[in-house]
Amino acid sequence: MKAYLKQIRISPKKANLVADLVRNKKVEDAVNILRFTPKRTAPILRKLIESAAANAVNNFKQKKNGLYIKEIIVTEGPTYKRGNAVSKGRSHAILKRTSHITVSVEAIAQPKTKKAEDKTEASETTNN
By the 8 A CB rule, do 54 and 88 touch? Predict the structure, then answer.
């Protein structure tokens, strides 16, 4: 259950700062944290997390309140190279960096209850 965003015009270093805030958190908690984070990456990452959660709900029949962020990967995309004119006919390079962001969500593993364990043991003994 993943969502991808490619070639977003944000530096990977800056995107990773915001991604570190929400790694390994529940989806609901991560969305609330990002809603009040004053960084340019926060609304973009929030929409991506909501998209991954919607993919899990619609395609894999998961419950939204039982999802957590398994991993967020921020990698470097292509760099746009621009120039800034300076004295004596020279130019300085301006590097406009881009990022690829991948968000993966997973359902929280529910511990087996005692009743469920007893039923499985009982069915195993009757089958043998």
Answer: no
Provide the token pair at 42: 């926060």
The tokens for 124 are 């195993």
Calculate mean pLDDT across residues 28-33: 94
Mean pLDDT of the chain: 90
Q: Would the pLDDT of 128 be above 60?
A: no
The identity of residue 75, as a single letter, is: T
Residue 27 has pLDDT above 60, yes or no: yes
CATH label, 2-127, candidates 3.90.470.10, 3.20.20.450, 3.30.230.10, 3.40.50.1100: 3.90.470.10
What's the per-residue H, E or C state across the chain?
Answer: CEEEEEEECCCHHHHHHHHHHHCCCEHHHHHHHHHCCCCCHHHHHHHHHHHHHHHHHHHHCCCHHHEEEEEEEEEECCCEEEEEECHHHCEEEEEECCEEEEEEEEECCCCCCHHHHHHHHHHHHHHC
Global pTM value: 0.80
